[in-house]
Amino acid sequence: MLTGAFAYLVLDVSVLADVYVMLGSVGKAVDGIALELNRYQGDDWPEHLRKMEAINYLDEMVDFDPLSELEARFYEISGSESSVELSEFLMQILDKIEKAHSALVEKLHEFNALLEV
To answer: How many helices (H) and strands (E) does the chain have?
Structure first.
């Protein structure tokens, strides 16, 4: 749900294309994990999941920080314009993206904590 809402926020915004691609990959990883959970017949599914590439990918995504790059791009764009409204708009968009990214990372941390049990 979080990846879908986040992806909708950045859809068709060319400066955010990398974030959109990353969200698609996170969604695929989550779908693959859900499918594997439905198929798994063994006794130790947490250990089985830890070995999955999708789990490793999600763990890496917790460290992925698209916001720093976006912030730099936004400052660059707003710096070339003298418009206060443009700067304010870009900062509001960045704030929305930061909130969506933080919510996604929080859920990934919670998921990883489940595997630690």
So the answer is: 6, 0
Contact indicator for 13, 22 with CB cutoff of 8 Å: no
∠59-27-50 over CA atoms, to 5°?
A: 35
Instruction: Note the pLDDT of residue 80.
Output: 60
Number of other residues whose CB lies within 10 A of the CB of residue 55: 20
Phi and psi at 50, nearest 5°, equal: -55, -30
Q: Which of 85, 112, 93, 116 is nearest to 6 (CA)?
A: 93
pTM of this prediction exceeds 0.90: no
d(CA 41, CA 44): 9
SS3 44: coil
